[in-house]
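>> received
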Amino acid sequence: MQTLREFTRKTKRGNILKIVREHYLRDDIGCGSDLCQYCFQNEVYQLTSEHDIKSSIFKFPHYIVLDTNVVLDQIDVLEENVLHNVIVLTTVLNEVKHKSSSIYKRLNEIIHDRTRNFYVFVNEHHKDTYADREPDESANDRNDRAIRLAAKWYDTHLHTSQASKTFQSSGRTATRVVLLTDDAGNRAKAEAEDILVASAADYVKSLEDFPLLVDKLSQKTFENEKQALPQYPPHLSMKELLEGLRYKKLLQGSFQASRENYLEGNVNVESYEKGILIQGRESLNRAVDGDIVAVELLPESEWSAPSEIVLEEKNVYADDVPSEERVEEEKEMLQQVQTAPAAERTPTGRIVGIVRRKWRQYCGILQPSLIEDTTRHIFVPADRKIPRIRIETRQAAKLQNQRIIVTIDSWPRNSRYPHGHFVRSLGPLGNMATENEVILLEHDVPHCKFSEEVLSFLPKMPWTITEEDYAKRVDLRDLYICSVDPPGCTDIDDALHCRELPNGNLEVGVHIADVSHFIRPGNALDKEAAARGTTVYLVGKRIDMVPELLSSNLCSLVGGVERFAFSCVWEVDNQANVLSKRFHKSVIKSKRAMTYEEAQALIDDSTETGEIAKSLRHLNRLAKILKKRRMDNGALVLASPEIRFQVDSETHEPLEVEAKQMRDTNSMVEEFMLLANITVAQHIAAEFTECAVLRRHPKPPPTNFDPLVKAARYQGFEVAINTGLELAHSLDKCVKADNPYFNTMIRILTTRCMMQAVYFISGSLQKEEFFHYGLAADIYTHFTSPIRRYSDIMVHRLLAASIGADSTYAQLLERKSNEELCNNLNYRHKMAQYAGRASVALNTHLFFRGKEEEEEGYVLFVRKNALQVLIPKYGLEGTLYLKGDKDGKDGLERTKSEVIFTFNEEDHTQRCGNVIFHSFDPVTVRLSLDSSNVQHEKLIFKLVKPYIKGFSVETAPEASTAATAQPPAKKSKKDKKKK
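>> returned
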């Protein structure tokens, strides 16, 4: 049956177009129920009589029809294995897809779980349930009517099917259909049309066997709250926001909350280098970190300066009224920053509306309540940038000392905190597996097991290289190829060789795992790798981008095993000048897989004269020439305080911690990986001018270097920042004979001034913008790590297509789709870095639990009330508070009057008597762990040397040399057994 829909549309030129759309209706679409005697069922029944839910308001068997708002708001309830025999209408499915892609994906996962009995009914193409749009009817009203029509049809249809004598003689109560909707208007209309209807909350509360499911209900408002006084200004309507943005009265950007000060944030706006400063609770106006907001810029006379005060919200409970202490705290902060010198002030504004919320699920803990038997609680997120969340739960006692997940539902004007609901528990607080799960969830790292569909695209084992494979590839199995990696590396994706040529030149090859051979474009394995974007490395744990069969087996270039590779081979002279290059897919057989230490030992041992040793010596010599050439061009040698943990293989707890050692072989591998990446970038950019995947590192704005320039100047050094070459030469000169770590600290500080390097598509920028500032390279990409980076897989496909080693495909050459992929890769890469740092912090805390260590360190920054101290041995930074604190934040029991520090703003020093602290001064500190805040444990730094009476802590007589001693390693169970 065919229906026609006609409507008119006005074109840009003012012409009126008449549009006619055909819509086909059918009479053979089944209802999916095993109770039906009339519908033709072409598959297994999905609505069955096996699952009857006990409800106190619907005391008979029933199926459920969901409204769109129920799916959008109550997806956490739907994901619980409680509700069965649920009818999902295509009207609802399409609306959900349009409004939230993430919830649409979650709903589809439920639908495809056959045990849940969720049935998709194509009501939009059924002749009895299709609802044509009436004149002057909104799209939303039409969809509501279509949902009611389908619910009514289902109920009538089942009633007819169950009217037979056979069914009546079975003694079974007739099954009805219940519509769940949270739209009061839709409920009223449904009741008027004799449809069984209920709100999601009323229905869930009526389920007799699942009382705790109520905790998962979305909480838009709490009872007895509607009469509370407003605590925030109203948000502008979407119409007002769009009008304000159109006429430039308002600015739009992403809101970033401060970690150090809960009353401060920043909105990144394109036309403002440092963004718009937001200060004070009312100006923040219910924005949550990540939200896209509209900002009203304040008059310049009201601009303020960023606060240097660290403000953490004190313990709060389920009351909404700010205490007098919190109000005074806010007033004091605002008064201080608004009286700052004009030169320090920055554009300041207030948030007047939310363009798009970016709420997600948050990990954290419940704050213990002072009221017994209450269901209302405060949830404290692990991320300090997220406000506390009010939830209702009936299982607070069970959830104490548990890490839990909560999601935000709303933030009314009359509530100090947003409202949310409990989603699930992760496990005991402090448990290593639980804390790792928190790190992965908080940094949005995809870490679920690979699905059966993804795994189905892996090669079938046992896998072997065929004669056809050899014929298509260059055979390099006879070359003395070897790999050099960190200890314990199983995902070996690069190997090297170097051999002398008859003409006196050298042949150098970089051989990269050919992952793109196994991952074909567009299949489930490829889509999963693209979504994950990168492998994530935590301490003692790795979250693979691709399944282990590829990452640690078929693609890993292990020694003595034939593997597929993508080879980049150069002919170079003895001064490392590239004379020619070629790319080809190859078969290699690595002669040896070595660690950096083993490779270094082989190079240094003059008695070693084998082919691998000769190859490594050539490579090492050439690498030094390449590195010097890069440095002369202005490439930067930066530094970061990196550490390595030795982890117990059974308990996964850290046994020992040490700074990472860098050897010549580290630099050797790095230089040839850089050369390969640059060579490949030049080639693919020439072949694909519009869609090559490249990587750039923007030059930082001059203001980024202010902390570096000032810190160096205080130490008597001038740092030039006009060009990378000037900066590199300046850093080389920052050397102090009495402080061997000084140059490293200057480079650590320089690293923090840098911009983030990002992936981009060649056609989206001008060539001069391709520049990689840190490497001083005109063009750069990532080619050398396809096992752990999806960007490299994209580059492999482009390179293969350019040399005829593989065919191209439409999406490979689509700029827009590749730009979207690059945006995801940039995000995933950033989150992976943050997750790795969080894992190091977690293991550092575990290592120091129950210990006190005295260590040598250096003052990195001098603050108004504290010293930022760097401990090179552990790669740690911490805060040494210099003034007494009424809250005891520094852990020392004393009054402010006993010890007085004076801060000099001109030279950024702190003086106490005859002791003066400058940036980069050596100090000795005692490290211990403060576990008073179970959610946010922190290392406490106490001064040992220089000694200040009444402030420094005494050195224990038996530990007078503890500052330089290695901490004792915790023995593993295996060591104890050996003893």
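>> The chain has four domains: 26-199, 219-224+231-429, 453-688, 849-959.
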